[in-house]
């Protein structure tokens, strides 16, 4: 049996607003070194790495003296680009994944299709959640922005639904962990899958 190709990627992106350097291994053990200068986003990306079994290194700097938005969104863009690059032609993957993850009172569901067709459906967060400050200058609205950027640049169809929750920190973390667990299933290599898991022959 042949050894599968390495599913790794290294991406650098520099603009007037941020500089991002990111490395990942889709077949890792969940080890991570994250420094985006946005502490709560570091926390979410660490959870993503751990629960998706993706080794992830992120070094990011940006104009956080203005707002965390640019650094968070640009890091998510690069993460999506790296995922797409590491997936290669997607031969042998399970393709689909779903997960339901609790964090105390919060419960989130995520479904991932490595479809090649970017799409995000994100629903269920309480009214006004987008305005909550979490961990200093990270706002609830950035959770959706991060999912949008990852899904678009990785070529994923992603549905994230908050089933219930009250604490803003718990909501964001439950959503990221659910996404991570669903992505872990979808990216997994399935020995029963021959070639590309699509009737079109490409994803």
TrEMBL record:
Pfam families: IGPD. Keywords: Amino-acid biosynthesis, Cytoplasm, Histidine biosynthesis, Lyase. Gene3D superfamilies: Imidazole glycerol phosphate dehydratase, domain 1 (3.30.230.40). Its main location: cytoplasm. InterPro entries: IGPD_sf, ImidazoleglycerolP_deHydtase, ImidazoleglycerP_deHydtase_CS, Ribosomal_Su5_D2-typ_SF. It is found in: Cytoplasm. It comes from the Bacteria. Pathway: Amino-acid biosynthesis; L-histidine biosynthesis; L-histidine from 5-phospho-alpha-D-ribose 1-diphosphate: step 6/9. GO terms for molecular function: imidazoleglycerol-phosphate dehydratase activity. Belongs to the imidazoleglycerol-phosphate dehydratase family. This is Imidazoleglycerol-phosphate dehydratase. It comes from Microbacterium aquilitoris.
